[in-house]
Design goal:
The chain is α+β, with helices and mostly antiparallel strands. The chain is built from 6 helices and 8 strands; from the N terminus they run βαββαβαβαββαβα. It folds into 2 domains: 3-83, SP0830-like domains (Alpha-Beta Plaits, 2-Layer Sandwich); 86-173. The protein is 36% helix and 23% strand. The strands form 2 sheets. Strands 2-3-1-4 form a 4-stranded antiparallel beta sheet, sandwiched between helices.
Length: 183
């Protein structure tokens, strides 16, 4: 049987009071679904784990259903493979420009996202910020802060509910956790 290293990014978990879950409960939930080496990152709703190779949307659906049934929390979940995160990390064209990694936002793109909408945003002048597009992610440099970034707001509006964003510091920590998983 082929095994895979996964990352699950839960949207909106631990943001506000309505979707707070203990990371220990989240790790247990994923382990109870039959996955191994389950590790979470702080209180972020981000989890890395290993398990049998399955389509990502199926893994996401399993997690979403278990969240509702066992923890009473509804959360969109985006799942990708650790090798995809390797590519997202390696492909970021804004790293030299972004001096504060907590203000460098990365929108993980689902496979169905139309790239044309993001490409149009990349062509706009967001000075002093910037927007760039990779194969699986859109990157937004928000030097004035993420909450005040018109570029981040525009990208979020165009991409809608099927995406999730993480700052570069969080993605770097997830990347490190992935490297610790057995291959």
């Amino acid at each position: 049987m082929t095994y895979q290293r996964y990352i699950a990014l839960l949207r909106g978990v631990n943001v506000g009071r309505a979707k707070r879950i203990a990371m220990a409960d989240l790790r247990k939930l994923i382990a109870d679904l039959g996955y191994d080496h389950v590790r979470s990152l702080l209180n972020s709703g981000n989890v890395v784990f290993t398990g049998p190779a399955k389509p990502y949307d199926r893994v996401a659906a399993e997690i979403e259903e278990a969240l509702v049934l066992k923890l009473g929390v509804a959360s969109r979940t985006l799942v990708l493979d650790c090798s995809e995160l390797d590519d997202i990390i390696a492909s970021n064209p804004l790293l030299e420009q972004a001096t504060d990694h907590s203000r460098l936002l990365t929108f993980i793109l689902a496979n169905a996202h139309p790239r044309a909408a993001v490409e149009a945003l990349c062509d706009q002048d967001w000075h002093p910020g910037a927007v760039a597009l990779g194969r699986r992610a859109a990157y937004v440099w928000c030097p004035g802060g993420i909450l005040d970034s018109t570029a981040a707001a525009a990208l979020g509006k165009h991409l809608g509910d099927a995406t999730t964003a993480r700052n570069w510091a969080t993605l770097s920590k997830l990347h490190a956790l992935c490297q610790e998983l057995p291959a």
